[in-house]
Amino acid sequence: MIAPLRSRHRRLTLLLAVTAPVVFVSALASRSPVPPMEGNELADLQNRLTADAIPVTTYVLPEHLEFARSWWPADSIRTTGSGTGMGMGMVEWRWDGRFVGLRLTLSTSAPDLLVYFVPPAGTGDEPRGGAELLADDAVLLGSFDGVEAQFFELPALPVMDGSRAVLYSLAHGRIVSSWSFGGMATVESRGD
Amino acid sequence: MGHSYRAVGWNRQKRVYDLALIAGIVLYLATFVGVGFTLHPGATAETMLIRALGTGAFLLLHLVLAIGPLCRVDSRFLPLLYNRRHLGVATFVLGLLHGGFALVQFHALGDLNPLVSVFVSNPRVDSVAQFPFQPLGVIALVILFLMAATSHDFWLANLTAPVWKSLHMLVYLAYLLLVGHVSLGVLQAETSPVLAGAVGIGMAGLLALHLLAGASEVAVDRGRDAATGAAGSAAGHSSLGLSSLREEDSAFVDVCAVSEIDEKRARLVSVAGDRVAVFRYDGKFSAVSNACQHQNGPLGEGCVIDGLITCPWHGYQYRPLDGASPEPFTEKVPTFRVQIRSGRVLIDPTPLPAGTPVEPALIGEGASDG
């Protein structure tokens, strides 16, 4: 009758009772260290991140803090640029050869922002895919979820003059900010 | 009972159940989004929806998994079990919406097919903190789809209850995958302890409930088996195993005293790992397998209604005399021979083929047997 079924159910339940807590605890234990939320360190960091900015709700993910602490205020940044677009205020881009960083200095009203790396166009002056459209060979770096500073690792492609990083609004279906690698502070912006 | 195909056999209880379910889901999503935007005004609507749907599905899965052990611990939860499959389908739908939004948000505009991107965009399987958690959610969603798609009685009847139940035990794997999906995903970036605490408490509560119910079931089995052995002694046999009793051609084993079974109710006895339900009704005793043919529900926890044994889970009914459902239904369960000796109820633990008629034992008979 159903004795084997009950026995299997019992074994599965016991297995779950062992494995689920192990997965849960292991995942929590391996989290990146979270700086204390109280104290001046985080406040100072956030002040630096939002310096010269109109105050907005500051939300910094823990994995960004390590980058931000050592990277954003540093002097080793090769180039920076900024632009405005689509009611989202100032977008500041930074690049150190491996990571590209974005910082919003005004709150955004554009939802679902995605960051892409666009390889250089072969010929012609027109940006690949048109001024506001995404090129077919654009590489998704990640989503920009509204934090003041966020960093994206660049793909293992040679970054050459003409390569661009773009901020793409999924909701609007168009590029809202674009920045070229190679030149100093070469900025393009797409306003409404 | 299903003798023909019907998409859903709606009745008042199912309508009330589903209305309450939909209202609860809408209320939860609205509350989550409202509170979420209050606490995180910078978040986008899509992000908030993804989180609301994901937490809603995970919460609902906890409820689905808790209903079974809750019913074992306290029969007052049985009404929740009646339409549990609709809860499961709702869980899948919420999970599908969560996955769909997440796929569009994070993978739709990359170089790869989004479904491929989910599996290959993050290759860091060697890191716990950076582990690709999204594929875990996709696999869990596939399992939930499989369960939702086969939840109808059509599949139950065609696959047979044991196969169907085995298939649906995959829900435990889905739950484990979702614990990993949440723990290795959102909890890695969450600085507030609230979400981690809620997940931990939910998981601990659910597992404790299952272990508690399982322990009580083991205790019941051991108690019944012990009673069976003791009954063998009372009936003139030593506490030998059942096989020994059969060898002596005196297979009947004791269940309990006649007075211990309430009218229209049953007493369970465990024989060789399986359970038999011995019912008392209208001065008679009949025994059938405890497993309902529908979903292997516990017939012995049901009662006799209109002269028919009625499963407490979904109301499937069987005649006590032959274990067969009344016309036009075709379900049948194995039956067992019953005797009354010296005011005690005994059964032959050898099951007869499903639907085999057996003369019920009468309370008055065997009163003078020793």
UniProtKB/TrEMBL annotation, chain A:
Domain of life, per lineage: Bacteria
The protein's name: Uncharacterized protein
Species annotation: Engelhardtia mirabilis
UniProtKB/TrEMBL annotation, chain B:
Domain Rieske: 253-347
Broad class of the protein's primary localization: membrane
UniProt key word Chloroplast: no
Keyword terms, alphabetized: 2Fe-2S, Dioxygenase, Iron, Iron-sulfur, Membrane, Metal-binding, Oxidoreductase, Transmembrane, Transmembrane helix
Location in or out of the cell: Membrane
Bilayer topology annotation: Multi-pass membrane protein
Gene3D superfamilies: Rieske [2Fe-2S] iron-sulphur domain (2.102.10.10)
Matches recorded under PROSITE patterns: RIESKE (PS51296)
GO cellular component: membrane
Family annotation (Pfam families): Ferric_reduct, Rieske
A GO molecular-function descriptor: dioxygenase activity
Membrane-spanning parts: 16-37, 49-67, 87-108, 128-149, 170-189, 195-215
Domain of life: Bacteria
UniProt cross-references to PANTHER family, sorted A to Z: 3-PHENYLPROPIONATE_CINNAMIC ACID DIOXYGENASE FERREDOXIN SUBUNIT, FERREDOXIN-RELATED
Name recorded for this polypeptide: Naphthalene 1,2-dioxygenase system ferredoxin subunit
Organism: Engelhardtia mirabilis
